[in-house]
Structures are given as structure tokens and as C-alpha cells.
Amino acid sequence: MSVRRVLIVGGGIGGLSAAIALRRTGVEVELIEKSAEWTVYGVGIIQPGNALRALDQLGLAEQCAAQGYPMCGVRSLTADGETVLRDDTLPSVIPGLPPNNGITRRRLHDILVSAAREVGTDIRAGVTASTVDQTPDEVHVGFSDGRQGSYDLVVGADGLYSRLREQLFGSHLKAKFTGQVAWRINLPRIPELDRLWVYRGSRGTAGFVPLAPDLMYMLTIEKVPDGAPVQLPQEGLAAEYRNRLAEYGGAVAEHRELVRDDAEIVYRPVDNILLPEPWYRGRVLLIGDAAHGTSPHCGQGGAQAIEDGVVLAEEVTAHESVEQVLDGFMRRRFERCKTVVEGSERIGRWEQDHSLDIDPDAAAYEVTMAAMAPL
């Protein structure tokens, strides 16, 4: 095994998963995170069956299920909530675990950080990579805290707006706006909510995701109304969100009235990226959102980042040279992630224009089949 010392840049889902997986194979791992507070963005996250499968390989699936809430399937409804379009119950991928799991972003972060520390990852928060210089045999990195280090492999897991991606591939390869924005807020769970509920509106979708026995989040993914700005200030978000939900009936209309606190709302434009292959230059590899950031339509962003970490560790164990490791990683990851990003984008395009010749259910099925295929 030629990869014995690895630096991971970024302490999100992908970076932490890679750290855990690599440490479990005996690789020495350092992880740096630019935020000294190491704050977590978002309210909750869906863990589909393939995410639980990858987490199981890290020894963390049962813990995530215990701290989350089981989701047995997906129910799709019309915007008024009167008509059920589909009501699918999904099989479990891992015996004894739910088909899908909803969990708060904070709880998932704490699980991953604890596991990374337990396996011996050297973690430094509030630190960035200032310089990255390569030779044929190693990567030399200078850090913002004045330290330096040399590594067999550097893994860039620094997110959708990756600085390392710009350093490696240039500023022209960046995340692009999809035309949609996403709204999320945590609310008390509807007692009968045991699956993802999705309401199809004229400009997008709204829905509910269970996160805990007493907690869920309401989400909306929508086309920006004509003439409205994409960027919105935090002040006034609650009133604006209630206004954007006006066309929805049923449970969405009932819970719309609970949206009162601007500070509780997570709002952001939906950007995505699919970096052309290969996702590496020399001995520096990009994973997760830095390489294949997807829109949230199929709930696969976090899942694919976890899979990246698992697959990378397997390739490191299987091969003697860095070139073989990276080539093997790309063979296993590119087409799968491409299907996820492009399929999710197609669903988003249809949500913005129903006249397009796109079947959103077929696109979602294609993504699901790709994601559930063996790693």
C-alpha cells in the first residue's frame, strides 16, 4: 500500500467519512477544517438506503438510525393535498435498519466527528491549506497556521464552492445556479409522518421529512418568481416563505402558519456542479460536493459523499500505486455520480417548466437504481 499518509481538506460529510474509512485501513490521516467553530449548515438530511449501506461499512449506520427517524417510503401529492399521486413503500437495504433515515444535520455531524476522533484522525479546525505543491512522490502543503506537511495523497472535500478545485482546475469550473432556491425549517413532527411527503406545485415542490419522534423539517424547492431576487436577506424570510407557500393546501397550509421566526429558516439558491473526469491532478483528489455537488431532489448529496470515502479507502487498500488508486476510484465513482447530478437536475428543470419532455418519476427512478447498485 503506497498511500500511508493523507491530508483531507474539509470537515463536512465527505471529508469526515473519508477520514474514518482511511483510518480503519491503517492510513495516517490529518483533517483540516477552515471554520474554527466548525458550524453545520442546514436543518436535516435524508439518508437513503445506499447512505445507510455506506455508513454500515463505517460502523455508524445503527447509530444514525438510533438518533434519527425511520422513513419507510415516499408519498407524492398534488399541491392542494387532496390527491395522492404515488405512495411507495421501500425495502430495507440493510437488515434491521429502515429503508431510509431522516436525521438532523447536527446529530450526523456529531456522530461523524466523534467517530473520526475515535479512530485517531488528527483534526485541526480554523486552518486552511495556503500552498499545495506536488512532486512525483508526494504533496507538500503549507498551512495558514504556519505549519507544513508532506503527504502521499491530498483529498479535497471542501464543498460546493471548493477553493482547492479552483487551485487545481481553474476558476472557470465552478458551481452554477440551477434556477431554483430551497427553503427549510424545523417544525414539530406530524404524528403520522413516517415517510417523505412531497407536494407538487406549479413552480416546484414542498414537503416534510421526519427527523426525530418530535421533529421534522418542511422543505420547498422552487423556481424563483418572475422579478424576484435570488438572494434574500435573513430579515423578512418568514413572511416571504409563507407567501411562497400560498398555493399549497393540506398539511403544508396548516404548517405554513407556524413559520414565524426569520432566524429559523435556512434559505439558499440551489447550485450544482459535475466536474469533468478525472477529479484529480497528480496526487490531489476532489470528492463530495467539490467534484459532484447535486441538487437535493433525490436526497443523494450526502449519500454520494459518504460513498466516496468508503470507495477511496477500498481502492487504497487494493492497489500499490497512487495512480492505480485514483484510476480505480474514478472508474467506480464517475458514472454513478454523473447519473445522480444529471438526473436530479432534470427533475429540477421539469419543476420549473412542466412543458418540457421530462418524466420526473422516471428520472428519480434512474437515479435510485444507480445509487442502489453495488459500490
From TrEMBL:
Keywords: Monooxygenase, Oxidoreductase. It comes from the Bacteria. It holds the Pfam family FAD_binding_3. SUPFAM superfamilies: FAD/NAD(P)-binding domain (SSF51905). GO terms for molecular function: FAD binding; monooxygenase activity. Residues 5-342 form the FAD-binding domain. NCBIfam families: PRK06847.1 (NF005313). This is FAD-binding protein. It comes from Saccharopolyspora terrae. The lineage of its organism: Bacteria, Bacillati, Actinomycetota, Actinomycetes, Pseudonocardiales.
